[in-house]
Design brief:
Order of helices and strands: EHEEEHHEHEHEEHHHHH
Number of domains: 2
Distance between the termini: 57 Å
Number of helices: 10
CATH topology of the largest domain: Rossmann fold
Shape: elongated
Largest sheet: 6 strands, mixed
Mean pLDDT: 83
Structural class: alpha/beta
Radius of gyration: 21 Å
């Protein structure tokens, strides 16, 4: 029996998934799972506030490889500080007409699982997807999860903690900076205050920041509104 919005919520479901059939199927499989429909900032499902699940049909997955969306979503999951999972739902008939090569799909899976660290598992249909989520929820309640590694988008393998991610988020949004130069600035100056107090010449000493970029960043940081 479902207990929506009463007591502890085991499962949070993004509004966009309410017509997927998952909710009804979970109701057939498990008792006393409390859920709520909300707008999730990342992913389609959030289990026990610990595990983010992105659900995609096979056809949607191929489209998301072509437009790069699946990688953006995976990096956002990885940066969330929670454990993540991608469920690919459907059978071969969904992709028979696709022109995408097997090699391209395998390359995407390698990137997601090996370099981003987000596992991908297959499901044949909505019923099996629901069963997988119930099993994940039960296991989550019974044993601790491994600590999630925080990676920097575009720089697989580089790990940072929550405070470092917050600092990087502020710096990398400066014009012309981005992730790599933002990380270089923080490594060179340690704090955002030090970056603000340095001169254009000081900025130029950081790898990847030339004269024009240093002038631009300095102007953004110091010119009045």
């Amino acid at each position: 029996m479902y207990l929506p919005n009463k007591g502890k919520v085991n499962l949070k479901i993004d509004f966009r998934e309410q017509r997927s059939g998952i909710v009804e199927e979970i109701g057939k499989l498990a008792d006393k799972i409390s859920f709520e429909l909300i707008t999730l900032p990342v992913g389609d499902y959030l289990i026990e506030d610990k595990i983010i699940i992105e659900r995609k049909t096979l056809s949607d997955f191929l489209v998301s490889i072509k437009n790069g969306r699946i990688f953006q979503q995976a990096y956002r999951i990885a940066q969330s500080g929670k454990n993540g999972l991608i469920i690919l739902e459907g059978d071969k008939s969904m992709v028979d007409s696709s022109s995408m090569s097997r090699k391209a799909v395998q390359g995407a899976l390698i990137h997601l699982e090996v370099f981003v660290g987000i596992p991908v598992i297959r499901s044949i249909n909505v019923q099996e997807t629901a069963a997988l989520m119930v099993d994940i929820l039960h296991q989550c309640q019974q044993q601790p999860l491994p600590r999630q590694k925080h990676i920097i988008s575009g720089s697989p393998g580089i790990q940072i903690n929550k405070k470092q991610r917050q600092k990087l988020f502020l710096i990398q949004n400066l014009p012309g900076i981005g992730t790599k130069k933002g990380l270089a600035l923080l490594k060179s100056f340690s704090t955002i205050e030090n970056i603000l107090n340095t001169s254009q010449v000081g900025l130029m000493k950081v790898k990847g920041i030339g004269k024009k970029l240093a002038e631009r960043v300095y102007a953004i940081l110091h010119e009045p509104f």
